[in-house]
Amino acid sequence: MPGTFKAWLSGDTTDALSRIRDVGPWYRVDNVKIFDNKAGLAGVPLAPPYKDENGDYVGYHGYYVWTGALNGGTKDSSTCEGWTTSGANRATTVGMVDNLNVTWWTDVGYGDLCAGSNHLYCLQQ
């Protein structure tokens, strides 16, 4: 996909929502609308964001996404030390790509260990 993209990630001092410019709407690679605008990012997606950059379904075995972002796109208190550590005893907030329950797309209510591997949401800017 052409263009410039920014990951939906909160840092230790920055909210994910504040990092994203209001240039929506945003679509999955299969042209299904996910969000109308930046305000929508603070709520529930219009459709599950479960396609990767190749259009492949990301679910069942790979559906967690690094976010560090709580509901509404605000930063969590732990973001793998600003995304600089993969320490096994550290955790951060993750989202779930195929669940439209409240705002689980960005915060499933528990963290995942920084030593693991997960996907990223990237929004065209």
* CATH architecture descriptor: Roll
Structural class, from helix and strand content?
mainly beta
Give the % helix: under 10%
Note the run of SSEs as H and E. Answer: EHEEEHEEEE
Number of spatially distinct domains: 1
Mean pLDDT: 90
Biggest sheet features: 4 strands, mixed
What do we call the CATH homologous superfamily?
Mannose-Binding Protein A, subunit A
Q: Low-confidence runs (pLDDT<50, min 5 residues)? A: none
**Rg for CA atoms:** 13 Å
Count the E strands. Answer: 8
Q: What fold name stands as the CATH topology?
A: Mannose-Binding Protein A, Chain A
Lateral strand order in the biggest sheet: 6-5-4-7
The outline comes out as globular
Strand content: 15-25%
Distance between the termini: 12 Å
H/I helix tally: 2
**CATH top level label:** Alpha Beta
